[in-house]
Amino acid sequence: MYGKIVKAIAGFYYVDVAESGIYKCRAKGVFRKEGKKPLVGDDVCMDVTHEGDREGNVTEIFPRKNELFRPSVANIDQVLIFFALKTPDPNYLLIDRFLISASLCRIPGILCFNKTDAAKDDEITEVRENYRNCGFPLHFVSVRKKEGIEELSRLLEGKTTALAGPSGSGKSSLTNELSGTEAMEVGDISKKLARGKNTTRHIELLKVGRDTFLCDTPGFSALDTEGLLKHELKEYFAEFNPYEGKCRFQGCVHIGEPDCAVKEAVRAGVISQRRYDNYAALYEELKDAERRRYQ
């Protein structure tokens, strides 16, 4: 039988088989000998050992299209970067880290903001202006009022989507809405800190439609950006692309150089000042990391 691993806990792998449901499986010992480990998201072959108890063994892991290490999950088609407009307010630097990281992993992304019902029009406009040219499709929803959910669900249909964002953004509520069940525990917002309580405790693919899965993960704060060099950072800010080759100096990194076309676009309001400030902050962060590496 063929299926997809949707959950892994304490050495057991839960395999979703189309039309048959979920089987609780062990992995064959040959995987350990070969240095392989099944991951959530793996497409696998399994043998049924006890149909009544829905038990079996994973016997083969099919080649992966990709693999993330934090969290450990395979065969992701896209990442849904999900933030709230209010309570908590958007952390713009963290948003940009997510966008860069998704690009580094070569995984298509969708940037979505929840809680439109709690935000003022000018706050929504500010976010829209900051990210309209970021290179990722931009969506706004209210999970509580079920606004924008149908359009978003069409973008997820038939795909395995990693759900990335801070606690309190409404990820669990979105998952419950899409699946039509209380699949995920929804945490209260701490009034003192205006931050969400992380309610997800293990990596799991939740089936929200035929061949449609969402992956929410515990302790998920940012995708991996290790290995990115400071001079490469500009490539991950899509709104800079039209100005490449138009600066005074070849190889301009748009920080301290004179006659920089990108900085002129920022002054003219064509490129978001907030996005540029985040670029400059991340550039300095990468510069410091490279300096420490070679000391």
Which structural traits does this protein have?
single chain; 295 residues; alpha/beta; OB fold (Dihydrolipoamide Acetyltransferase, E2P); Rossmann fold; Ribonucleotide Reductase Protein R1, domain 1; 3 domains; 6-stranded mixed β-sheet; 7 helices; 15 strands; 25% helix; globular
Sheet of most strands: 6 strands, mixed
| Element string (H = helix, E = strand) | EEEHEEEEEHEHEHEHEEEEHH
Unreliable runs: 183-200
* Molecular shape: globular
Q: What Rg, in angstroms, do the CA atoms define?
A: 21 Å
The fraction of residues in strands falls at 25-35%
Number of strands: 15
Determine the structural class based on helices, strands and strand pairing.
alpha/beta
**Strand ordering within the main sheet:** 10-9-8-11-15-14
The helical percent reads 10-25%
Explain how this protein is built.
The protein starts with a strand and ends with a helix. By secondary structure, it is of the alpha/beta class. Strands 10-9-8-11-15-14 form a six-stranded mixed beta sheet, with helices on both faces. Strands 1-2-3-5-4 form a five-stranded mixed beta barrel. A two-stranded antiparallel sheet has the order 6-7. It is 25% helix and 26% strand. The chain contains seven helices and 15 strands. About 6% of the residues have low confidence. It is globular, with a radius of gyration of 21 Å. The protein folds into three domains: 62 residues, Beta Barrel (OB fold (Dihydrolipoamide Acetyltransferase, E2P)); 149 residues, 3-Layer(aba) Sandwich (Rossmann fold); 64 residues, Probable gtpase engc, domain 3 (Ribonucleotide Reductase Protein R1, domain 1).
